[in-house]
Amino acid sequence: MASTYSNLKIELIGTGDQSGTWGTTTNTNLGTAIEDAITGSADVAFSSADVTLTLTNTNSSQTGRNLRLNLTGTSGGARNLTVPDIKKFYIIVNNLADAVAVKNSTGSSFTVPAGVTAQVFSTGVNVVNALNYFSGTAAITAGAINNTPIGATTPTTGAFTSLAVTTVTSNTIFSATGSITLPNGTTGQQPGTPAAGMVRFNNTTSKFEGYDGSLWGPLGGGNKTDIGFWQNIQTITGSQSINNGYNASSIGPVTVASGASVSIPAGSRWLVL
Description:
Elements: E1 4-5, E2 11-12, H1 22-39, E3 41-47, E4 51-52, E5 68-74, E6 79-82, E7 87-94, E8 100-103, E9 110-112, E10 117-123, E11 127-129, E12 144-145, E13 148-149, E14 184-185, E15 199-202, E16 207-211, E17 216-218, E18 235-236, E19 240-241, E20 248-250, E21 255-256, E22 262-263, E23 270-272
Parallel strand pairs: 3-5, 4-6, 5-7, 6-8, 14-15, 18-21, 19-22, 20-23
Antiparallel strand pairs: 1-2, 7-10, 8-9, 10-11, 12-13, 15-16, 16-17
């Protein structure tokens, strides 16, 4: 009985076959075919054209059986990499200058951007993203995460639901017509170690405020440098406080609404004229 082959082209010896030589076949299955599928890495060379990987009935080393595929050469534009129509994981290392769509002979594909490594899964019909959730911190490498370039030369559409502490080293432009929501909290929730330039909304005073390097102060309001007077409200509806080491003045009458208060630190003065 002739040998048959699995989807990964593991040689399946027929009953009673290969007497005296079956050990050689078994060793090749274990040492070559299975190792390729579990830990193998192979280069896939592009030459300004799409590439199709196939598997044939042999348990010797084959590129399409390897777990890790290292894409090399010249792409010459966006390319397709067609992998065998079997269920299999692949780690795609795209060293090309262009994006590569990994696909089966039919069905949907998954695109790996240039310079990015991604893990994909071939269902035999479609190739899909094998990972779409990170329980910890996801590193942004080669200018992309989750297939969305950030700050690349030609960025594409993408969105983050949340980001941890992040430093943007260049100017940021918000071109939408909606709004941006700033951090907000009470006076007591102001950062313990503020830095100059911080901006937030104060729920205690119901005002936007900024930190100038020494103290928090309100932003905007009714006072402007191009008019001849300063303005203050006549009814204080939210609790407010004068900063330590500062005095304050208001033009009366000023009414402190029920439930509101004005806190004056020791040694400070509030003058109502």
